[in-house]
Amino acid sequence: MTMLTKSPATSPPLRSPRPYKKWLLEIDRQGQWMADQSTEALREKVADWQEQLRFRRISREQIRIPAFALAREVAFRTTGLRAYPEQLFGALALTKGAVAELATGEGKTLVAMLAAFLFALEGRGVHVVTVNSYLAERDEAFARSFFDSLGLTVGLLPERGNPAAKREAYGKDVTYGVGYEFGFDYLRDQLALIRQPKLRPTKKLERLFLNQSVVQEVTVQRRLAFAIIDEIDSVLIDEAGSPLVVAEASRNTGALARPYELAHQVAGQLEKGIHYQNGSSGRTPAFTREGKRRIDEVPDVPWDLLKRPWPYYVANSLVAREGYHKEEHYIIQDGKIVIVDEFTGRAHEERSWQRGLHQAVEVKESVTVQPEMESAASITRQRCFGLYQQICGLTGTASESAHEFRYFFKLPVLRVPLHRPNQRESLKDRVFVNQEAMLNAVVEEIAQRHATGQPVLLGTRTIQVSQEISKRLTERQISHQILTAKQDEEESAIVESAGSPGKVLVATNMAGRGTHIPVPQESLELGGLHVIGVERNESVRIDRQLIGRTARQGQPGSSQFFISADDALLTVFAPRVSAEWKNMPCKANGQLPGHLARIYRQVQRKAEKQRYQQRILTAKRDEWIDQTRRILG
Residue 2: what pLDDT? Predict the structure, then answer.
């Protein structure tokens, strides 16, 4: 979310905004009366609405318009920002239970704050969900004076905080926090309730006599009411396949490394095509008859330490060797394997791969093997946010997934018009015969633009590619900065500087997503921020998020993608196309005809479709689990 605002529309909303136009006119009319009132008078008005809502004398619908007129006025007094009509449109859409597609730089922080105010009047708690702790802290700090002026409480959900601190944060009218932390707290609460010792009747009677609560305070959350989800496509769609898991270390830790180390040795002796083939699920190998015989004949297997069939350990080792790569899927920090999110490029210390895969990677990298974590409770993000009475969200890239939002979450998508016309220049993709040729061309493009002083932001899919480009830029003596998942604490400060004249920033995927990039006048006169994408991602939305970092708020800017036959998208989803491109005649610099980019985008749509099918299967599995639990009582 960014705190700055922008403007008028060039793209029509996906659904008719007719009622919203009427509401906006009425908000303007009532806003004139609000502007003449003192802050104390407006605060009293808020208190009156709270009381009437509490006793159900009025409904949220009845006060929606005056509440927004009041909120816009108070927001102006406390933050100095007066919400544009487009921002009010987005906030109204949220309160109607929709996904507001609000372009990057259009002021999502202010929009979410206005919507949170209306929900907060009911006194049941509003959760404003962000994708990382920096954004949660920033947005809570921005909104604090606004809510304080209105007599409402606002808090920041601590990560890994003690129960008392968390309980206090959840007791506020509005709570800002990271998405997964809300989910983990729900799981921990459910475990606490299950494990809570049951009071004997005599003990209950004793507590009643002493005027004490019969129910022991073991949970931190209140009943889930309202959630406003920032970057909702990232939270509900991109991360849909990664369930939230509260895990506990396995009790069997004796000689725990032996099975994984032996499996690693065996996997190193197997040959692809003779002992195993790629399985139908992609990464998981399928053993041939010869491979199964070889695995079965391994001597000294520690059978008493196995948690699952022995071939599964060998399969995990093969997957760790061939399917998971350092600086792409994980990094090593303080002697530990830390998973890197494939969509955001962010490192997650709290995550681990399940069923022995994490240990297989640890053996591969010769780091200390940690005990396997056994799932104590888990929940998918779809099901977790489905527990709220009402959810809504914001993102700059929702239209591609409009059907999915409606299918899974019953959420309509409303495209909020731009406040100012978009001036971005989107250059045609450049296609190359291999990665080497592509990277050479990327560095040459950066050098040419850097020579003019134009700022350049380069987005890569992996840490490894970022480091390779950084090496080449250093050889060319081009001053630059590299941002990877390893720099979480300073990430936002680095991204904020990307628009400075002469700046070259190499960033892994969507590192720093949500951070505002100011572009000074000197840079604007040079063409604005130029964004280069190295490889396209599996999702068009991720590509749009990258190019959305330039030409914000009607400013000039440009973007271009560089792709090659070696890109993971082709080698994984269309290996035949990749092979054909490598044998095609090309220019001296390795560049292929530009029309091939159309084929590349067809493969991208194929990858998106497969992901979508996987999410459908996950949703059906969730539904089956829910039905089973209801039947079993």
Answer: 35
